[in-house]
Structure formats: structure tokens, C-alpha cells
Write a structure and sequence with these properties.
heterodimer; A: 73 residues; elongated; B: 254 residues; mainly alpha; 5 helices
Chain lengths: 73, 254
């Protein structure tokens, strides 16, 4: 990919370079899954499925779950 | 160098998500909580229909509406901030002639639509007392299916638009992508089952206010994220243009 060689000025902003996919992939795999696990605990744990028994997680995030649009109970 | 850029963007995304979560929390507390309380009032008045007997309260209402709400909002903000930052790493320089800040705002707008608004149009947020506990499995499946479908389709529409752009021009390529998304999503809306668990005599104005506040929370979250993350990304990727004449303006060549 050709990089812009002209000096950046107020009228010609430099467009950002692409980040190669193989560089993004390990971050996306690890942190993507971690973030999805977080979302699962906010949005669905102890609703349709449970990792922990009881209703503590469900009750604690109850209001957020309703207001964020997840089906709650 | 590139891997460091991804890491720096990810950290900034999660921080921007946390900040956006705080903004969303303010909206949720001021606009959302009154409707939640109203719906719980309705639920208690009609307790004979929904919950069987009196259950011991596991988490008190005052905790649910403050610390519990904050936990949910902030974790949601951080999680989506991280995911959006990873999507941003991919979108940067690939979606069109946009700078770091504009790309961030564009991505946030699209995420708001694809992750929340489109699924919400078919399966809107429901307050307490609305929703039959027996159908929670089905409703959860349908809702998450809708999000996945909408996000995949939005990504597909963007790729389609990029492919068509050299042949038919950016304007018509964008229209084709949007049209493709709307048509396929329309078919999905028509085919997927309807969910209607609104109990009899549930106040329509209360339901409307709850759903409007749910939408306001997401608009706040995503616009807040787009603006904050855009500033952070701009500073990271284009620090002080033309400060040093010889310095490369682009953070990393390939």
C-alpha cells in the first residue's frame, strides 16, 4: 500500500494506514471473547442459561438488563 | 509497532467505553429508573398473575437501581468499547476516505444501528412485568440471533458497497449496500416469530416511556463512545500534524 508522501497540511489530511489482519487477529480472538463473556454476564446469565446457580447475578444487574434491552425474565 | 497500535486502540476503546457507560448510567438513572419503578409497581399490584407467592428479596430495590444498575452499565460500556475498538482497528483505512475521528464516529453510528436499533425494532426492550418467564429461553435466543444477524448483514453490506464502489461510484454503491441490508432484514422481520408478552391493562404510556428511555441510553452510549474514542484515536494516530517536518504522519507503514 502506497503511503502518502506529501507533507500534511490543513487542507490535505493524511488518511490512516490499514492495520494488517494478522496483527489484529490475536487481539480480536482473545479480547473479543473476553468482552463477549462480560456481555453474557450482564445480559443473559441466570436468565435463559446459568453458569452459576441461584439468581444473585440476575438480581444484581436486573435494572441494567431491562434498560439495556436484554430479555430479563 | 502495528501490534502496539492495536493494543493502544483497544485500551483507549475500553476507557472510552467506560466513560460512555458513565454517561449512559446518568441517562438510565434519570430517565429509565422511574419507568422501571412504575412497571414494578404494576407487577406488585397484579402479583397474583405473575409471581406465585412472596419471594425473599435477594437484592434490594435501592441496590438494584444504583450499584446494580451502575455495574451493568459500566461493564456493558467497557465490553462494547473493547469490541468496537477491535472493529475500529479493522475498519481503519478500509471503509473509505475517512480520518481516525470520522471513522470512529461512523463506526459508532453503524454499531448503534446494527447492534441495538435494528434488533430493537423487532424485539424491543421490555420493562419488569412484561415478559412471560416460561418463554425466556425463546426470547433470549431470538434477541441474540437478531443481533448476530444484523451485525453480520451490516458487515456484509459494507463489504458489498466497497466491492461495487469502483464500478458504480461511491454514492450508488452505498445505496446498494443500504438497500441490501434493508431488504434482507425486512425478510427476517417478516419471517421471525412475533413476541408479545405485554400483560393486560399494562399502561401503554409507561411502556412507551420505558422503551424511549432504553433507546436514549443506547444513543447516549454510542454517541458518547464515538466522540470520546474518536478524539483519543485521533491523538494516537495523527499526533500534531506537521509538528516535525521529517516525522512520518502515518503511525505505521505496512
Amino acid at each position: 500500500m502506497a503511503q502518502p508522501v506529501a507533507q500534511p497540511t490543513a487542507t490535505t489530511p493524511v488518511l490512516p494506514a490499514k492495520l494488517p489482519l494478522k496483527v489484529i487477529a490475536p487481539w480480536a480472538a482473545f479480547f473479543g471473547i473476553l468482552m463477549l463473556v462480560l456481555l453474557y454476564f450482564v445480559g443473559a446469565e441466570q436468565g435463559a442459561t446459568s453458569v452459576f446457580s441461584g439468581a444473585g447475578v440476575h438480581e444484581w444487574v436486573h435494572d441494567a438488563r431491562h434498560l439495556l434491552g436484554f430479555p430479563c425474565h | 509497532m502495528n501490534s502496539t497500535t492495536v493494543r493502544n486502540l483497544l485500551v483507549r476503546g475500553m476507557l472510552a467505553g467506560l466513560a460512555a457507560g458513565v454517561l449512559a448510567l446518568v441517562i438510565a438513572y434519570w430517565l429509565g429508573e422511574p419507568s422501571v419503578d412504575g412497571a414494578i409497581g404494576f407487577e406488585e399490584a397484579h402479583a397474583a398473575h405473575s409471581h406465585g407467592g412472596e419471594e425473599a428479596e435477594l437484592v434490594s430495590r435501592s441496590l438494584q437501581s444504583t450499584a446494580g444498575l451502575a455495574t451493568g452499565m459500566l461493564v456493558y460500556g467497557v465490553a462494547f468499547g473493547g469490541i468496537a475498538a477491535l472493529a475500529y482497528c479493522f475498519a481503519l483505512g478500509r471503509v473509505g476516505r475517512f480520518g481516525p475521528r470520522a471513522t470512529a464516529l461512523l463506526l459508532s453510528g453503524c454499531a448503534l444501528l446494527a447492534v441495538y436499533v435494528v434488533p430493537y425494532l423487532k424485539y424491543p426492550a421490555t420493562p419488569p412485568a412484561v415478559g412471560n418467564p416460561d418463554t425466556i429461553g425463546k426470547r433470549t435466543t431470538l434477541y441474540f440471533l437478531m443481533i448476530v444477524l444484523s451485525v453480520l448483514l451490516a458487515t456484509g453490506a459494507t463489504v458489498l458497497g466497497k466491492r461495487l464502489a469502483p464500478r458504480i461510484g461511491t454514492y450508488y454503491a452505498t445505496l446498494a449496500g443500504v438497500l441490501g441490508f434493508v431488504v434482507v432484514m425486512g425478510v427476517a422481520f417478516a419471517v421471525l416469530p412475533v413476541v408479545n408478552d405485554v400483560p393486560e391493562h399494562f399502561p401503554a404510556t409507561l411502556l412507551w416511556r420505558f422503551r424511549l428511555s432504553a433507546l436514549a441510553i443506547q444513543v447516549t452510549l454510542w454517541s458518547g463512545f464515538g466522540l470520546i474514542f474518536g478524539e483519543l484515536a485521533q491523538r494516537l494516530l495523527q499526533p500534531k500534524p506537521a509538528a516535525v517536518p521529517a516525522a512520518p504522519a502515518v503511525p505505521a507503514g505496512r
